Amino acid sequence: MSQEHQPICTQETQELIAKLRACPAVEKGLAQAEEQHQQRINEQVQLTEVPAPPFHEEERAKVFAQLLADAGIPDVHQDQIGNVIGRLKGIGNGPTLVIGAHIDTVFKEGTPIKVSQEGTKYFAPGISDDAAGLASLLQVARSITQQGIKTVGDIVFVGTLGEEGNGDLRGCKALFKVKNDYDGMLAIDSANVHRILRGSVGCKRYRIIFESLGGHSLHKFGIVGSSIHGLARAITKVDDLQVPTEPKCTFNFGVVKGGTSVNAIAARAEAELDIRSVDQPSLDAFVKRVLKAIQEACDEENNRWNLEGENAVRLIIKQIGDRPAGANKDDASVIQAAYGTLQSLSIPLEKYTLAATDQNVPLFYGLPATTLGAGGIEANNHSLSEWWEAEDAFQGPQVAFLTALTLVGVNGVTEPLLEKQPR
Q: Does residue 413 lie within any of the structural domains?
């Protein structure tokens, strides 16, 4: 863990969690997560084998909606964009907590997905990211509803769309953009229960396009500009920039394509650019420097060959992603609840860090939010060789269950730790 940032859980919060643990229904809910461990695995396998490629998550969303309703969550429905939403109401006048996991995967349409098993290890694209989160969320719902736990605040269970890649958090953005009463969020993403996210890495993504007339590599040499040459100059110019290290910024050209033939001047070339920082002002400032360098590269390419008018290379920049940065205070309610829960369950905290998940969105709106692990062990995420180890995976829903109850409170047992936002 970073020495600069350490999670805080006050004595008052520890005592609040101890009161919850003394409640028989809460203890039974924790035990239920272990008792229904195999059901959780079965649902995870079921969801994994339902395709959810980028921008086409409809089939899995329908299956998840039915499973969420079966778990006892009332009025499960899909919003305009397709997020699956169900609200478990509290006794009234309490805060509203969103707890969610994302439905989509990174795998393109038509990818064969069939889960195989070796002992307690399961293999399939997307078996962990984020089918494990969805299955953990379902178990949290069952542990609350089947134990008859009545909360003070409301809990909104959500399966979000478009968390991955160029989905650009579109589901969570739509969720928080409309008028709502949400006061905070817990996302369930990644298997690791030993990790709490204190904040979000911001990310802006662009498609950098160079265009020209193109032409024969001999006859039009030096007369018509090459889009590939212009793009190569832009990548080199960005690569030579001095990159801020405090706060840390990064860049990456992750996809490059263009041209038609070895003996043809390229009429089009493009690259997808990812720029990140843990600090929003630093991210915005570095983006300006990068885009300025790319424009300068285009001008330099044309000046190099004295190209003008239709013979020049032209630059088009399209933004294809915008994930805002944000951070909690180390004593924020969600951090205290999550850290206190780990302590109460004797689960060591090994990582207190930042990442990009659905939590980016509520943090952007100034709401407390963090991401919890779904349980188990994962490897090779976003690859065809992805696998998930189920041993002790019940700890994931246990952590999310107790953290959520700490935040919204249990009627007659505890008051909510989550603050209601002024509206």
A: no
In a domain, 5, yes or no: no
Please provide residue 387's backbone torsions phi and psi, each rounded to the nearest 5 degrees.
-140, 160
Full domain range(s) for residue 384: 11-199+325-408
CA 159 to CA 99: how far, in whole Å?
9
Q: How much is the pTM?
A: 0.91
Report the C-alpha gap between 323 and 234 in whole angstroms: 24
Report H helices in 305-359: 333-344
Strand order in the sheet with 154-160: 77-78, 84-88, 154-160, 96-102, 184-188, 369-372
Task: Return the closest-CA partner of residue 114 out of 127, 103, 104.
Answer: 127
Structure tokens at 263: 């003996």
Q: For the sheet containing 121-123, what is the strand order?
A: 116-118, 121-123, 387-389, 377-379
Residue 141's contacts (CB-CB under 8 Å, 6 or more residues apart) are: 68, 71, 72, 73, 86, 88, 157
Q: 72 pairs with which residues across the strands?
A: none
> Is residue 317 one of the residues assigned to a domain?
yes
**30 contacts 38 by C-beta, under 8 angstroms:** no
Q: Hey, which bits of 365-418 come out as E strands?
A: 369-372, 377-379, 387-389
Each residue's pLDDT tens digit, 214-242: 999 999 999 999 999 999 999 999 999 99
Residue 19 lies in a domain: yes
Express each pLDDT in 75-111 by its tens digit: 999 999 999 999 999 999 899 999 999 999 999 999 9
Which residues make beta-bridge pairs with 268?
A: 211
Q: What's at 282, amino acid-wise?
A: S
With a CB cutoff of 8 Å and minimum separation 6, the contacts of 298 are 210, 230, 233, 234, 313, 314, 315
Provide the CATH number for the domain around residue 212. Answer: 3.30.70.360
Dist. CA 149–CA 336, nearest whole Å: 22
